Amino acid sequence: MGGCFSDVRGGKDAVGGALPRPTEPNAKNDGAHNDAIEFFYREHGAYPLFTQLELSFSASKLLDLDVTSKSDPMVVVYLKKNDGKLEELGRTEVILNNLNPVWIQKVSVAYQFEMVQNLIFRVYDVDTQYHNVPVKTLNLRDQEFLGEGSCVLSEIVTKQNRSLTLTLKGKNGHGGLRNFGTLTVHAEETIASRSAVEIKFRCAHLDNKDLFSKSDPFLRISRTVETGGSIPICKTEVVDNNLNPTWKPLCLSMQQFGSKDTPLVIECFDFNSDGNHVLIGKLQKSVADLEKLFKEKSGVNFFIPSSRADHEKVLKGQLFVDQFCEREQFSFVDYISSGFELNFMVAVDFTGSNGDPRKPESMHYIDPYGRLNSYQQAITEVGQVIQFYDADKSFPAWGFGGRTANGTVSHCFNLNGNASESEVVGVEGIMAAYANALRNVALSGPTLFGQVVNRAAEIAARSLSSNNNKYYVLLIITDGILTDLQETKDALVRASNLPLSILIVGVGNADFRQMEILDADKGQRLESSTGRIATRDIVQFVPMRDVQSGQISVVQGLLEELPGQFLSYMRSMDIKPLTFNAAAQASTA
Fold first, then answer.
1. Between 3.30.70.260, 1.10.3720.10, 3.40.50.410, 3.40.50.300, what CATH number should domain 338-573 receive?
2. pTM of the entire predicted model
3. How far is CA 308 from CA 30, 178, 357, 380, in A?
4. Phi and psi (nearest 5°) for 317?
5. VWFA domain: which residues (predicted)?
6. 3-class SS at 408?
7. Which of 568, 503, 572, 497 is nearest to 528 (CA)?
8. Range(s) of the chain covered by CATH 2.60.40.150
9. pLDDT confidence bin for 31, thresholds 50/70/90
């Protein structure tokens, strides 16, 4: 029924070793460690005592709900809060046609020893109709439930081997005597390190496991652990019909491989769509061994394991390392703490769809008793977060879709009414300029984002000629009804290679599907009217109704994707933290 992205093609994709490319910033993992969020709380005096852990999963004897094939399982992890509500922490990839899966994708969780952290693990069979859909966008109601297990996080951590096997049950413990199989959860502490290696593998003279064509090989790499056994850390994509394959480069962090001397198990399989992948051969080498293979331009032979070590069959097929380089992967905080600045800009929706501001039902209504309207709430709550990251707390502030004093409709006017200066100071300045604009600007339309995006892009582009330690963030607050969708896409595509991110905050209960298209969270990068593809995803959309209902915090909603977007730009331009550059210059002086 599914693969890593819910179809056979997805099942052939690489997992766990992707390069940090500008076109694909680090995928967000709900509940995972986020530099920006932690940095915000720490700077506000909150010092949570926690250890960051990664949870990995394997299962045995899962239910088979498919008629002509086996289930395609995925694990979803939840934290059960004190009020009984479930907070999703993350999802594994989907494994194709397998009742005894070993997942590669880990789920990150902060272990707080002073708290009882109840975890719930649910296993789903992903339906084949979701072709090549990223797992985080899958609607779980559309998938078949295979079983669930639960435990307290400390139960896993206190085990000697940090592994706990749970007997799966039906939803809420129901299911009678039916056997749902087992799920094993293993916890490892996250290693804080910037070190990573980029490796490109090639094989030659592999054994052919197919009758009417050649093998479709892929590599699976696992790290051995002290307690015995091994944990998969990544796999390559599948190369079809090839006994001498070359795979795309993998980027492995020290967090994944442990140390350069840690033994890695490298297995080569022939891919089969029914999930019964055939082992072509295996070998064991450390990262240091792989570096030596690269330097010596030599290969190493695969072998077929035997119950007796002295009877292992050495094969003709060999593994080669065509590329090996070490790199440092800097974090969001590395850049910010070294002197990089985030500069924020704000744009507020003044279109007629918000309702007559003189009437209480309008989202722009100013309450005489001081109760904040939807826009004031968004400005206040969002502003408290964004101004923390802005060095001078001076924001260019614009409105769009309003009829200004001269009688013309403007799609980018200065919110403070000053024709020559758009900046205001702090959240108070934005609130004052907004209230003043409501008295002087009539709501009109249509809703066009293109001009404010272009204005922000102009400011970001001008900074490149004088200073490369600034990154810009445009905050758009809107009711979500967009008129110029394609023009906005064109502007976003043009801006995607600039130091710019765009946070869209949706107010009210409108249909926000257009905003979700711009967010491109389903893996489909934006395309302009001329066919140009966005260099990277630069949009994050947050509906305020989710914040106000308690589903997410403002901090989490706004900063969830910003670090990945920021880092994707810095890495694509090979820009390093200022302190790193200063140290490098000092060492060569």
1. 3.40.50.410
2. 0.66
3. 45, 39, 81, 69
4. -65, 140
5. 343-562
6. coil
7. 497
8. 51-192, 195-328
9. very low
Q: Which of 105, 121, 135 is nearest to 232 (CA)?
A: 105
Q: Give residue-wise pLDDT tens across range 198-249.
A: 999 999 999 999 988 999 999 999 998 877 788 899 999 999 999 999 999 9
Task: Specify the domain boundaries for CATH 3.40.50.410 within the chain.
Answer: 338-573
The H or E element that residue 313 is part of is: strand 313-328
**345 residue type, one letter:** M
Q: What angle do CA 190, 572, 246 make, to 5 degrees?
A: 75
Coil, strand or helix at 203: strand
Find out whether 447 and 353 touch, Cβ atoms under 8 Å: yes
Q: Report yes or no: 265 and 289 within 8 Å, Cβ to Cβ.
A: no
Both structure tokens of 121: 């693990």
Does the structure show a pLDDT above 90 at 150? Answer: yes
Q: Considering only 17-21, 322-326, 492-496, 512-516, which range has the smallest mean pLDDT?
A: 17-21
How far is Cα 20 from Cα 27, in angstroms, rounded to an integer?
Answer: 10
Provide the strand spans (E) within 483-524: 500-506
Rounded CA gap, 379 and 317, in Å? 62
Radius of gyration of the chain (CA): 26
- Mean pLDDT for 28-39 is 55
Kindly report each contact of residues 522-528 with a partner whose C-beta sits within 8 Å and lies 24 or more positions away, as own/partner.
522/133, 522/134, 522/137, 523/132, 523/133, 523/134, 523/137, 525/23, 526/489, 526/492, 526/493, 526/496, 527/489, 527/493, 528/489, 528/490, 528/493, 528/494
pLDDT per position as a tens digit, 449-489: 999 999 999 999 998 887 678 899 999 999 877 888 899 99
DSSP string across 324-336: EEEEE---HHHHH
**Helix or strand run (H / E) with residue 567:** helix 562-572
Provide the total of helices (H) and of strands (E) in the chain, helices listed first.
Answer: 15, 26
Q: Residue length, the chain?
A: 589
Residue 352, number of CB atoms within 10 A of its CB = 17
Could you give the 3-state DSSP secondary structure of residue 187? strand
Phi-psi region of 574 (alpha: psi -120 to 50; beta: other; left: phi over 0): left
Q: Which helix (H) or strand (E) holds 493?
A: helix 485-495
The answer as to CATH 3.30.1250.10 being correct for domain 195-328 is: no
DSSP 3-state percent helix, strand, coil across the chain (nearest 5): 25, 30, 45
Two tokens at 412? 């980018």
Distance CA 501, CA 497 (A): 10
CATH class of 51-192: mainly beta
